[in-house]
Specification:
mainly alpha, 7 helices, about 65% helix
């Protein structure tokens, strides 16, 4: 499953990954767990209104619900996200998009079975900053 990520959304999520890399949250984390650390240990958006606005501005509410349903059916065999709750929809969508973005990064695929090192974090920062520029 591939989603269409608008550039502004991709930039926002790349900056989220970049912030985590620069603030030390990814130190001593297996590369395969970077996605979990960045997109699953804290909420991306808190607040129903803020979540609704983010969905409207960045993806579309119904497109988000469709993406979540397809992802969860394919990966879990059932849909678990509370689709009537904007925060749940927004945060699950960001989880899915974050996974896709990280999987597209060369440094992630090249080091998947490794623990992060300062060199890997530096490569991650460099790759993201190059994409952002």
């Amino acid at each position: 499953m591939r989603t269409t990520i608008e550039n502004k959304t991709r930039v926002e999520l790349l900056n989220t990954i970049l912030d985590a890399a620069k603030d030390g949250r990814l130190t001593d984390v297996p590369v395969s767990d970077i996605h979990h650390e960045v997109f699953n240990t804290d909420y991306f958006i808190i607040g129903r209104y803020q979540a609704e606005q983010w969905l409207i501005d960045n993806y579309g509410v119904f497109a988000a619900i469709d993406t979540i349903q397809e992802y969860e059916q394919m990966n879990f065999g059932e849909v678990n996200t509370k689709l009537g709750e904007a925060e749940h929809v927004c945060n699950m969508l960001v989880y899915i998009l974050g996974e896709e973005i990280l999987n597209d990064l060369q440094v992630i695929s090249d080091n998947w079975d490794e623990d992060t090192t300062p060199e890997i974090i530096d490569e991650l920062i460099k790759e993201i900053e190059e994409e952002l520029n």
